[in-house]
Amino acid sequence: MADMDSKSLSNYQLHSNSSISQYLSDATSQISPSISVSSASFENYQTGSNCWIKMSECDEFIGPKRSKHTMVAYGNSLYVFGGDNGKQMLNDLITYDCNNNSWGRALNGSPPTPRYHHTAVVYQNSMFVFGGYTGDLNSNSNLCNKNDLYEYRFSTGNWILWNVECAPCPRAAHGAVVYDNKLWIFAGYDGNARLNDMWYIQLNTTQNMPKTWIEVEQTGEQPSTVCNFPIAVVQDSMYLFSGQSGAKTSNLLFKFDFKTLFWSKIRSNFILRGTNAPPERRSGHIMVAHDNNLYIYGGVLGNSFFHDIYSFDLETKTWDVIAMHSKSLIPSGRSFLAASVQNEFLYVFGGNGDQNTRSNELYRFKLPNQPKSTLKDDFYKLLKKEMFCDLKFTCANNQVIYAHCVIVATRSPHCRQLIKLAKEKLKPTPASLSALVSLGSSSSANSLSSLEEQRWIKSPPFCLNQDEFIEIKINEENPEALRMLLEFLYTDRIVSLEGRENEIETLKLIVDVYKLANQFMIPKLKKICENFCDSSITCANVLSLLRYVDSLNLPALKESCMKFLAKDINFNQVIMLTEFEQLQSSLMVEIIRLRQTPRKLNTNDHMNEMIIDKCTSLEQDLENFLLKEVGNEFSDILIILNENSKPLFSHKCILAARCAYFEAYFRSFMPKERKVLMTIGDTIPPRQACISLLRYIYFDDVNMPPEDALYLFSASHYFQFSNSRLHIFCKQNLEANVSKNNVFDILEAADKIKDDYMKNFALKIVRTNFAELARSNRIKKLSKELLLDIIVDLSNFFIQKPSTPTATLHSLSLPANSHHRASSTPTSPSFNSHLIAVSNSSNQSHTLHNPNALFQNILTLINDESKS
Question: Which positions fall inside the BTB domain (predicted)?
Fold first, then answer.
């Protein structure tokens, strides 16, 4: 309940819910229809993540359309300098106010000569512009690259040309960043050739100190000569992606370590990880860093302009394509645009589009701020820690590897049958018999339905003792291959290959994994192994791989080797190797015959991608396992909500993997009869909210009704998930979906769980839509206390000071199609004065004992104002 007048309000006794709700309905019916407040226009999607919004365009009288310019963020503004408009080079400086969504011209002093393909960075209170291409495009004269360095001071609007020593050669289309109080430049084009040199200059020098450029002695896997590329800094490293390198143009991502001056290629191993492939090679694109991720947008390859956004997670080294919000206004593909990050927003401006058109459009993209899913990491830790294991695999060499029946059965139909057969051979333990008797007893308050009871009796739950395991024996002698297969079952990826240097042994290991995947009927893993072998075959390893897969009788992988050898360029190199001479005669004959009478090989790589796409993912398998009867057979925990509700089937290892709360709970003791009473703090959530919680725990589903989101708002903290992902999604869900249609449900739930944030949010929507909601039948079902909270909230709203804009009638959101003058005309001073006078009457005890008088006065005043 609101704090205002709580002492006085405590003296007021509400006689009945119906009397107050009926009064609110009757009183609001007197409000003039012309100012009836409809649903609030909360356009939450405009500030939601993954959403493009088109901002104000830059008018021609402020600055022309352009490309090959720069844009930096300083304070709450963006500064755009230079570029070309298709007719001439530019040297104007225009600004965009991010708070007011407006464009203007900045104080420009004596700017550098007009130019494009330059660089601009911000250091402290200045912008530094280096190099670029300058001259007269119309007359095609004085065209040259520059190596000058200008400083623009935001506080004074003055440009300063730095007098430097040992400057690098003039260049354009290079990259520049700030690190360790230095300006670093890399590569570019000098007018004759692309470059890959690197230089830096100290920026925090005093006026009398010499300003000297120093060339960097780079080491490691240095990128080839390149231009028209982006670079970005994260912590102590600089990253470069793609760009123009002639025949050597690639889609590689490079990392430069500032401390060691060492370059390295970042290899994502996306095939084994089951993640997205890197973006296509391109040039003229942008790349920004935010929250330990790199974001890439735009660029061009040939005649193709890109408009999707890729992200690269620097921690997991995985690429992802950002899914757009359904209400995004996605900009068309473009190149040679400029971009900058301000707070959590990516701004992109200008650029070249199709038909070589320039743009003056500004778009804003809300960068993702949700914590990433920890589902796969949580299950990986569960596997590595061997926590709550109830399954063991015994290899041919008697080495034992432990796992969990639930997850293995979820992912492998073959293993599921083996586990079920082994389970039937086990006699029920006293614990399981006790549970069955209790669950089947008519006196049990938590008894199952007859159908569920029969299912449990037919298929007893797992109640193995701590030292008991279900055992599966396999013929595989390589335990490492089995560990990789289990790693995939738990995470949908293979990550333990990183750091291996022996290429042949790595390929053989993947072949062993392929063999197990075939045995365990895991088609997705089979295809991943096939694709990895296809992409890894070289002239140096093809014969070793061919001998190995032939000895194991794996025709699909043998076909991959033959397909490689069928190409003339590969065949001519391989037959000259000493290893070919030592090849067994049957394989040698087969290769030669392949050359003489080529057989039709399966070269449709697209089919492999389609097969993988049709395979189920970890999340899909767990969803089926939770929601269908197959998961009930392996249940070892019952979730209890109250005495009369049916229990929900669950699995100990999954709960423990995802929630530190359940891990500690099950480590301490196993609950009696395997029953766990589900509470969130002191609140027992409704059944539907509990199901939504289990959906998140099992397969990371964050889609739920707003009513469930409210109950789960604090679940992340209570159950100690790995991060606050569930909490943030619940908050965004509520803010985006609370409306006049469900606001009372949200208000009641927020009040029940004592969530002040969402309760105040709901009260705001009630207040905004008060005229309509007060006439609804739903308001009559609210408790006395909530009805009084609504009255107090309305009174608090109108009792604010006249100088506060939100204290007037017209701060309420009107219908989108309303033409009432209140949307553009402020209320009269007399109205505000009268409103405060009336609202102040709420402090008087006689008014609080008669809320009808208070509301009658307020509503009469509103009605009179609307008619004036």
Answer: 389-498, 635-706
763, 793 contact by CB (below 8 A)? yes
SS (H, E, C) 73-123: EECCEEEEEEEECCCCEEEEEEEEECCCCEEEECCCCCCCCCEECCEEEEE
Q: How far apart are CA 349 and CA 654, in angstroms?
A: 47
Q: H or E stretch including 514?
A: helix 503-519
User: Are 729 and 372 contacting, i.e. CB atoms less than 8 angstroms apart?
Assistant: no
If one counts every other C-beta atom within 10 angstroms of the C-beta of residue 15, the result is 8
In a domain, 13, yes or no: yes
Give the integer Cα–Cα distance in Å for 390 and 820.
70
* Biggest CA-to-CA distance, the chain: 108
CA distance 818 to 826: 15
The domain total for the chain is 3
Residues 340, 407, single domain; the answer is no
274 and 396 in a single domain? The answer is: no
Distances (CA, A) of 335 to 28, 73, 286, 331, 668: 56, 20, 8, 12, 59
Residue after which a domain boundary falls, among 575, 596, 614: 614
Both 486 and 350 in a single domain?
Answer: no
Residue 40 · residue 736 · CB < 8 Å: no
Domain ranges, residue 162: 52-366
49-73 confidence digits (pLDDT tens): 789 999 999 999 999 999 999 999 9
Domain membership of residue 661 (yes or no) is no
Is 531 a domain residue?
yes
For residue 350, the SS3 value is coil
Q: How far is CA 477 from CA 517, 554, 629, in A?
A: 15, 17, 35
For the stretch 140-194, pLDDT in tens is 888 999 999 999 999 999 999 999 999 999 999 999 999 999 999 999 999 999 9
What values do phi and psi take at 50, rounded to 5? 60, 35
pLDDT higher than 60, residue 131: yes
Same domain, 296 and 413: no
Res 196 pLDDT > 90: yes
- Same domain? For 314 and 251 the reply is yes
Model confidence at 784, in pLDDT bands (50, 70, 90)?
Answer: confident
Confidence grade of residue 829 (pLDDT, cut at 50, 70, 90): low
What's this model's pTM, rounded to 2 decimal places?
A: 0.76
Identify whether 641 is part of a domain. no
CA distance 510 to 513: 5
353 and 478 in a single domain? The answer is no
User: Same domain, yes or no, for 22 and 146?
Assistant: no
